[in-house]
Amino acid sequence: MLGVDGLLARPPALELAREAARDGDLEQLRRLLWEVFRFRPVQPRLARRCRAETTLAAGTPRARRVPTGAAVFVGTHSAMWDEAAVPDPEDFDATRAQEQYRVFGGGPHRCPGEQVMGVQLPALLAPLLRSDGLRRVPGPAGRTRWDGLYPRRLEVDLGQEG
């Protein structure tokens, strides 16, 4: 749902996704979706526990001591806007290096579901994107509705009759 919503919000990206779907280029479609999720991740933060006392941002005015066992929320969304790690983060660029994405976390804690989703999402969305009539339905139903942090509903029209 968030992938479709993000593409509908970016007509040039939607057209690229439609071309990729029509050409059967699921890798290009995956790259476009990962970039959409960089702007609006499914999970903008990860909950973790600190295994050993540490200091975040040591030596800076924002340094913070984190005790052993403390709950920590890792801002994966904000990490994808760090100019030191992601060049021109405000630009939609589906040619970014895979390691610049934190949608699925990073390092040894990177979600193993990334590989599955990288195959399933493009394959599921490709038939929908092949429809030239894909658009939001008018009014509030055409906007993603949320249940807390999670998308609940988005209505689209495929522009087909009968």
| N- and C-termini, Cα separation | 24 Å
- Taking pLDDT < 50 over at least 5 consecutive residues as the criterion, the unreliable ranges are none
The number of helices is 5
- Count of distinct structural domains: 1
Reported CATH architecture? Orthogonal Bundle
CATH superfamily: Cytochrome P450
Description:
With 162 residues, the chain is α+β, with helices and mostly antiparallel strands. The protein has one domain: Cytochrome P450 (Cytochrome p450). Helices cover 34% and strands 15% of the residues. It is built from five helices and eight strands. The strands form four sheets. It has a two-stranded antiparallel sheet. Strands 2-3 form a two-stranded antiparallel ribbon. A hairpin with a 7-residue loop joins strand 2 and strand 3. Helix 2 crosses helix 5. The chain starts with a helix and ends in a 5-residue tail after the last strand.
Question: Secondary structure elements and their pairing?
Answer:
Layout: H1 2-8, H2 11-23, H3 26-39, E1 46-49, E2 54-56, E3 64-66, E4 71-74, H4 76-79, H5 113-129, E5 135-136, E6 145-147, E7 150-153, E8 156-157
Antiparallel strand pairs: 1-4, 2-3, 5-8, 6-7
